[in-house]
Design a protein that fits this description.
The chain is an alpha+beta fold. It is about 25% helix and about 15% strand. The strands form 4 sheets. The protein has a 4-stranded mixed sheet, covered by helices on one side.
Amino acid sequence: MSRYIMVIDATRCIDCKACILACQQRNGVPYEYSRNWVRETPDRLAPLGMAYQPGACMHCDNPLCVKACPTHATYKAEDGSVVIDPDRCIGCGGCIEACPYDARYKNPLTGTADKCDYCRSSTPGQIPACVQVCPVHCRIFGDAQNPDDPVSRVLADGKHVYVVPPDYDTRPTLAYLNRTTPTDWPQKKDVPPALAAIGPLSSVVKVLGGLTLFGVIGVFVKQLFLPSEDGKPAEKGDRS
């Protein structure tokens, strides 16, 4: 099974925003919204006094967004990516609030949550648009399970780092080479208690609903083969 990973060399980024525009066009992202970003950080060692940090969904192995979703619309797929099922999303915004990377937004056209999915919904199996258009090749994407894949060779060097929230180990899979320059992110986020309780509660409701249906079927079968006395036709001479 493939396990897709993205690695970013932020030191190469020139803030051209090509990755953002390509993502918006390929995935039909509404105007003024974005699935990815390039954050600016003051850096006196940089030639222009600024360092740039491209980013997107971290596709965490321990994602808070999954825990916050009451309908299980957000889930960790077998290929390593975190995915949203739009048919199950109710637009409650719990996953958006829970994400410490601010990597999600609510699509104003569909009313559902949206984020980077490695372009799997628009072009399954192809390299993400942000990777294809980067003029300085600061983004690397591939199958970490394939030792010959470029992303595997980069990860094997051990020079990568992860951006982890201070209070919760999300175990992000998106990695940065050499160094990165986070400023005010990731932020401390908590899953709202009410939303956290809905998930287990929905499972209980499903079980109870199944038991109720089983009971109804049981009564139907009993009445079909073993009708009760009340269901028998009155005998002749019985005037009661």
